Amino acid sequence: MTPILEAQNVKKHFPTGGGLFQKKGLVKAVDGVSLSITPGETFAIVGESGCGKSTLARLLMRLLDPTSGDVVFDGKQVTAAKGVALSALRRDMQFIFQDPFSSLNPRMTVGKLVGEPLEVHAPELSKIDRRAKVADLLAKVGLRPEHADRYAHEFSGGQRQRIGIARALASGPRLIIGDEPVSALDVSVQAQVVNLLGDLGRDLGLTLVLIAHDLAVIRHMSDRVAVMYLGKIVEQGTTDDVFEQPRHPYTRALLDAIPDLDDQSGASRARIEGEMPSPSAPPPGCAFHTRCPHATALCREAVPQPVETPNGHMTACHHWQDIPAAPRQTTPRSKSPATLARLALYRQATRGGADHPRRIPNP
User: Where in the cell is it found (predicted)?
Assistant: First the structure.
């Protein structure tokens, strides 16, 4: 299938220093990322804070210009687009920001906020038609038409994020990029917004690119996952492959950091020691070698090249074939018949039907 979005060796380096007593340097926020996203899929980019995933999201959307490399959307160069061509791309590519409050103009009503993209991309609509379209968009995200006359500060965090989603949908995009769209929300509200994004993606045929550090959200939502570390993608594959058969030591450590109440000892878990190196002074060789328990002299000297298996699982590690898998040793907890019955009723009530295999229950 022809990709809808491609990144080809994209780099973004920010200059630093250069003052009277400061040495010039570069922060390599994104350092040679290549990826390919097919139409209709949900693609997730995960990693620790500071790994460069949010910068990458802005490069894909052309909110930042890359230092080098290309971004291609539906066969068109995003990095070279200007004027009318860039406006057309912005109509088909929309962005959901992390903070739902700071991304909404407090002086504009919800109707104005959601309707503004219509004024830009559908100027032929009359005022009445535009208001009807806004009401329809609000209904799609679970809000009422009368909410159009209110302001953003009158809503909860989850409702504000729904407004941001409605605004992103207004231009009729084919692809939506979400920069940690649920990380600023309560856990119970996160499930609602995640379900909403999943439903919209399926019903409207959208391609979703999600930036996140919450692996539980990614596990239930995404079709494929890319793991970033210090500006590079170190592992990429289908969600099931990455979560069930992680190959890179960093991915294994991220997955083992997920709390598990069934894990009594935690002895089999991989642990990451130390802090992530500064992107302004990345270590030589493999960037993860300063924290990797399997690092050798080769890791400290040579940058590992991505290796892809026939099923599309990519890993950038010198020793991924030699590192034995370490599954968690868990002891099943016993549950009373009454507890099992309540859990069965809960799952039945929140499953959302057989066509929602990855749906997260709303707490």
Answer: Cell inner membrane
Tokens of 312: 């599309």
Cβ neighbours for 69, distance < 8 A, ≥ 6 positions apart: 7, 8, 9, 10, 11, 32, 33, 79
Q: Is residue 256 part of a domain?
A: yes
Domain around 215? 1-18+25-335
Q: Which pTM value belongs to this model?
A: 0.84
**Residue 362 belongs to some domain of the structure:** no
The CA distance from 291 to 234, in Å, is: 14
CA–CA gap between residue 356 and residue 343 (Å, rounded)? 18
CB proximity list for 48: less than 8 A, separation 6 or greater: 213, 229, 254, 276
**Token reading at 73:** 């959307």
CATH number at residue 233: 3.40.50.300
Residue ranges, the chain, pLDDT below 50: 328-334, 343, 346, 349-357, 360-363
Backbone φ, ψ for residue 94 (5° rounding): -125, 160
Per residue in 279-298, pLDDT tens? 888 899 999 999 998 899 99
Q: Is residue 356 part of a domain?
A: no
Mean of the per-residue pLDDT values of the chain: 84
The C-alpha angle 134, 193, 116, rounded to 5 degrees, equals 25
